[in-house]
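Hi Prof. W.,

I finally got the Mitochondrial carrier homolog 2 isoform X2 prediction working! I wasn't sure whether to trim anything, so I left the full sequence exactly as given:
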Amino acid sequence: MIARSAATVITHPFHVITLRSMIQFIGREAKYCGLCDSIATIYREEGVLGFFAGLIPRLLGDIISLWLCNSLAYLVNTYALDSGVSTMNEMKSYSQAVTGFFASMLTYPFVLVSNLMAVNNCGLAGGSPPYSPIYTSWIDCWCMLQKEGNMSRGNSLFFRKVPFGKTYCCDLRMLI
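And this is what came out:
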């Protein structure tokens, strides 16, 4: 768990750069061009803390996911599987995969909040109104998403959920 948390802390600045590079396509901006330029831009505008925007919910999600996955796999392997089966190792690997999928599904809201906080108010159109509200903290982001019923938005590849009641500037331009 410590190694995974350390890896998350070390790689999070690159995750922030990746997300901001992707979100700049919404406003057709070119603020983050290349690794060195992105590092300089974040440091100049937000300081060192800018590299760790959204780290807390990501760490919490990783820790809960790891704990949940290992606990469920232990319970399944200990109590649900018959030790006399010849394909016991194969069954254990399947149970690990299924519990990993289940744990990632349950901890998806942490990933969502982390990603939103990484691009929140970063000077790009996609991280600012009208595309995204400005959040004061990750808890504020969590509460707002929960209030709107959007904690699982983007979670499913096939069954997408469209938020009702949102109107964007581009939608208004199409109506005119």
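The CA atoms of residues 141 and 147 lie 10 Å apart. Does that look reasonable to you?

Thanks,
D.
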